[in-house]
Specification:
Elements (H helix, E strand, L loop, with lengths): L2 H9 L3 H7 L1 E3 L32 E3 L4 H14 L7 E4 L12 H6 L3 H16 L5 E2 L23 H16 L10 E7 L18 H8 L1 H8 L4 E4 L3 E2 L2 E2 L4 H11 L5 E3 L8 H4 L5 H11 L4 E2 L3 H11 L5 H17 L14 H20 L3 E5 L12 E4 L22 H8 L5 E4 L19 H7 L5 E7 L18 H12 L3 E7 L7 H4 L4 E4 L7 H9 L65 E8 L3 E8 L5 E11 L10 E10 L4 E7 L6 E4 L2 E4 L2 E8 L5 E8 L1 H11 L1
Parallel strand pairs: 1-2, 1-10, 2-3, 3-4, 4-5, 5-6, 6-9, 12-13, 12-14, 14-15, 15-16
Antiparallel strand pairs: 7-8, 11-16, 17-18, 18-21, 19-20, 19-24, 22-23, 24-25
The structure holds beta-D-glucopyranose.
């Protein structure tokens, strides 16, 4: 449709019809049943009166080609304007083929992985009638107590920008082999990932510097990659809930960043303005959100209920309402819905079979790049083809390992299944210890252990894989925790295995960094598995058996203890740093714990032995030599950091500026080159990039804590030259 056609459509709509376009509900509200709908808010659904059912503009979390088609058809019969519904859903890490959770994916430090997995998710879910995904979640996270860190790309702004933008490209750019697009809705604007105390839905208290430098760039990168929608966050910022935050939504998003797409509220968040205490009733809540620029109200009906009255009383201007509706109509139009409101034709059985196979292979390859090897003493890993290996722990044969937001899918390949398919069965011993209960159900541990049984079942094996972690339901939305340790019986199990003299290899399934210090000395090796999706067990088996080397790097710091949180690598300098490890009293430190985390950002071992050397900074590039002196072909991630020694505001001790995944063979030496660009030397302030001449540290290495360092004096002339070169 042309822009004129959209305007004339708008002109013929009644106010109630316009308000309907701004309403998003699950199918239950207008008389359809969908057992897969995820309800993440109040569950008492008051069906819409029959007379209003034709007005709804979009549908939340309804999936499946047949279901979406029926609902669309019913709607088109009811709506005299024949404006098709938009189907939006949380397609977060896959639809049919489930990929690693986003935090795990970020550990691969691979934009290609983010793009490819998003592409496949788009092609599978578009075929099931979905038009928009509520992804990527570009919330920066630095507190693993928050359950939704699993949905993020971790603690670093650069990594977050790259992964979020790559996901948008993946969702929105079809390929010949993977057709079908989803429009991406970036969320949760803004700073939902920084709730105080890690407690879900809590307020975010951040300085404007932290917002600008760390928390906002991820959303902006996703928008620059072309995302046409933004979801407002649940939390308050500057004491105003994001849903009613005029400076944030109008001032920053629309005016400064020039965003012209659709803003949607989060689930029931318009109505929740009353609980926030910024609106006295539903009518005031609708006025606040509409005036702040929230176009679509998700899962509450204040716009429809009060919109006409707000217009009559002058609390809402008709032009504002029209602009919001026009944005929704434009989105529908850009997705081609006016021409074809129905899902793509279903694939033939043969096509579906082939693409399922292809997707499984890709999911497995990607899942192999996400686990992070945290410890590997005494060559515990990889397992050797001739040894007898025990497998125990609550995740040993667990198939419920997809993690939150798995689009209704529930099971992946278990570790036992993966190992059995790739390792001689006669050499594997499974010592079952039952499954792990969820905190949500009040059953947070495994059943009591029988030491005698364990001894008997594992008597032939020197090495024992112990698959432990947190229950997948205890991650994701509404899953904040104050205790990040493994459950007491899991810790006991590991201790017992060590006491039995076994070589203990822990495989940790979790959606967040857990507190692993209590088990570390009892483990010879620790592999952080995360939740890897459909192909989980197969990918883990490949790594454990050494068919591929682990290559993941931590996208989030692992604390020693929950008391250190927030602990992240890019902290600001302090006036009293701990110097040379000296334990003086009046320094910025704890009396009972080092400042250093257990494992730093960017950390992860491989089966090779790689070193960096010879860091050199040239006018146009920065080079460092990588060499693999071990006997395994591996992939290393070389990381480039900078720090400014003196500036007019305090600067982080270091910041990631670039990274590169490099496959490297045994004995090989590679020169890794990064462009020397102006971006390495500036920081954002007041909407501009600021450069202050002076001395910079340029650092390179294989994690954020162990870096080679060179000093670079940057003059204004040199900076200007770099800026010119970039043009
Ligand atoms: C979550 C969003 C999600 C929405 C719809 C909310 O509770 O915060 O991330 O997109 O539900 O399911």
């Amino acid at each position: 449709m042309t822009e004129e056609a959209l305007s004339s459509l708008l002109a013929q709509m009644t106010v109630r019809e316009k308000l309907g376009q701004l309403l998003q509900l699950t199918p239950e509200y207008f008389g359809h049943q969908d057992d897969h709908t995820a309800l993440t808010g109040p569950e008492s659904i008051e069906p819409l009166p029959h007379s209003d059912r034709g007005y709804v503009g979009s549908v939340l979390n309804c999936t499946g080609a047949a279901q979406t088609r029926t609902i669309q058809q019913t709607h088109l019969n009811l709506d005299r304007n024949h404006i098709p519904l938009l189907f939006m859903a949380d397609i977060i890490h896959g639809y049919q083929t489930i990929f690693p959770i986003p935090l795990a994916l970020a550990c691969s430090f691979s934009e290609q992985n983010a793009q490819t997995s998003a592409r496949i998710a788009a092609s599978e879910s578009a075929a099931a009638g979905i038009h928009v995904t509520f992804s990527p979640m570009a919330d920066l996270v630095r507190d693993p107590r928050w359950g939704r860190v699993m949905e993020s790309s971790g603690e670093d702004p650069l990594l977050n920008c790259r992964m979020s933008a790559a996901a948008v490209r993946g969702y929105q750019q079809p390929s010949a082999q993977e057709p079908g697009v989803l429009a991406a809705c970036v969320k949760h604007f803004a700073a939902y990932g920084a709730p105080e105390g890690g407690r879900e839905y809590n307020t975010a208290e951040l300085s404007s510097c932290a917002m600008e430098e760390s928390y906002l760039p991820g959303y902006q990168a996703a928008l620059q990659a072309g995302a046409p929608m933004v979801m407002a966050a649940f939390n308050t910022i500057e004491h105003i809930p994001a849903t009613a935050n005029i400076p944030l939504l109008r001032g920053l998003l629309r005016e400064r960043w020039g965003f012209q797409g659709v803003i949607i509220s989060d689930y029931n968040a318009v109505e929740e303005l009353i609980a926030h205490g910024v609106a006295k009733d539903g009518r005031a809540a609708a006025a606040c959100a509409l005036n702040a620029g929230v176009d679509i109200e998700m899962m509450s009906t204040q716009y429809l209920t009060h919109g006409e009255d707000l217009l009559r009383s002058g609390k809402l201007q008709e032009e504002e309402l029209d602009s919001a509706v026009l944005r929704v109509l434009r989105l529908k139009n850009s997705l081609g819905l006016f021409e074809n409101p129905f899902p793509q034709p279903e694939l033939s059985q043969e096509d579906a079979r082939l693409s399922a196979m292809r997707h499984a292979q890709t999911a497995r390859r990607i899942a192999c790049e996400c686990p992070v090897l945290l410890k590997n003493d005494h060559l515990a890993l990889p397992l050797q083809p001739d040894e007898c290996v025990g497998l125990t722990g609550p995740f040993a044969s667990e198939r419920h390992i997809l993690g939150a937001w798995s689009a209704g899918q529930t099971e992946g390949i278990s570790l036992w299944e993966g190992l059995s398919a790739q390792f001689p069965h006669s050499q594997l011993r499974l010592a079952s210890c039952g499954s792990l209960g969820s905190l949500l159900d009040g059953m947070e541990d495994i059943a009591p252990l029988s030491e005698a049984d364990l001894r008997k079942q594992l008597q032939d094996c020197q090495k024992v894989l112990v698959a432990v972690g947190e229950h997948p339901d205890d991650t994701g939305e509404g899953a904040s925790k104050t205790n990040l340790r493994l459950s007491p019986r899991q810790e006991q199990l590991i201790h017992l295995l060590k006491a039995m003299g076994k070589t203990v290899i822990a495989v940790v399934f979790s959606g967040r960094p857990l507190e692993l210090l209590p088990i570390l000395s009892d483990c010879d090796a620790v592999l952080q598995a995360w939740f890897l999706g459909t192909e989980s067990g197969s990918a883990l088996a490949e790594i454990l058996l050494g068919h591929v080397s682990p290559s993941g790097k931590l996208a989030m710091t692992f604390p020693r203890t929950v008391g250190q949180i927030p602990v992240y690598y890019a902290q600001l300098r302090t006036g009293r740093p701990v110097r040379d490890g000296l334990r003086t009293r009046y320094a910025s430190r704890y009396l009972d714990c080092p400042n250093e985390p257990l494992f730093p950002f960017g950390y992860g071992l491989t089966y090779g032995t790689c070193q960096v050397s010879g860091l050199s900074v040239q006018n146009d590039c920065i080079q460092v030599q990588l060499c693999n002196t071990g006997s395994y072909p591996v992939t290393e991630t070389v990381q480039l950091y900078t720090a400014q020694k003196t500036a007019s505001i305090a600067r982080p001790v270091k910041q990631l500026r670039n990274f590169r995944r490099v496959p490297i063979a045994p004995g090989e030496q590679i020169i890794v080159t990064f462009p020397n660009t102006q971006a390495l030397y500036c920081y954002p302030r007041g909407g501009k990039q600021v450069f202050e001449p002076g001395s910079f540290s340029i650092m390179a290495g294989l994690d954020s804590a162990h870096l080679l360092c060179a000093t670079q004096e940057m003059t204004q002339a040199h900076f200007d030259q770099l800026r010119k070169d970039a043009l």
